[in-house]
Amino acid sequence: MLTGLQKGDLLFQFRTGGELEWIISRLFAGYNGMAINHVAIYSGENEVIEAIMPRVQKTTLDYFISRSVVDGLDRPCILHARVKPRYSALAEGAVAFADQQLQLPYNIDYSAKSRSWYCSALILEAFRYANGNIPVFPETPMGFRDLETGELFPYWVELYKTIGQSIPEGEPGSHPALLSCSDKLEVVGLLGQLPVRQNSWTNLDKGMQLA
User: Fold this and answer.
1) Structural domains in the chain plus CATH codes
2) Quick check: 73 pLDDT over 70?
């Protein structure tokens, strides 16, 4: 189990789910090359706040853990990180901001529009707000291409065609895997063994519960 959690800690996850979760895990490599497709903020009292379909919500820690892909020893795959000491005073404010976003919709097109969030964008904004509107974690260019092949995923092509928008490739945004690599964070622990990009995606796919 995860131990030593403090309010404001970040929990990076290789989360089970459908096609979207599988695709997100293939866009960027995370900390030490790990496959990561989701992040939540620990809000205390064994709960996390996360932006996940269909809305921002508060989830019990046990339920959050239960949605993780498991490794070969049947351990859920979660990376536990914390902002470095110089930023620790921001944790309380970041959680307070995230708490105020509960029930807002999930941002399905990953745009910069307000009043909706995807998982890593919520974290960036929470810490920016807590830091007097000065970013703690910088935005990173968004990508919609397979990390292995460099090709756009058909999922994104269809999604943006349906909503009548161009794919925002390279535009400012965020991704949980890239956030896990931030030099503003220190790794506290690892629950299970997150797979790395160099592993066979065929093997990783067996752990995903595709819809």
Assistant:
1) 10-140+174-195 (3.90.1720.10)
2) yes
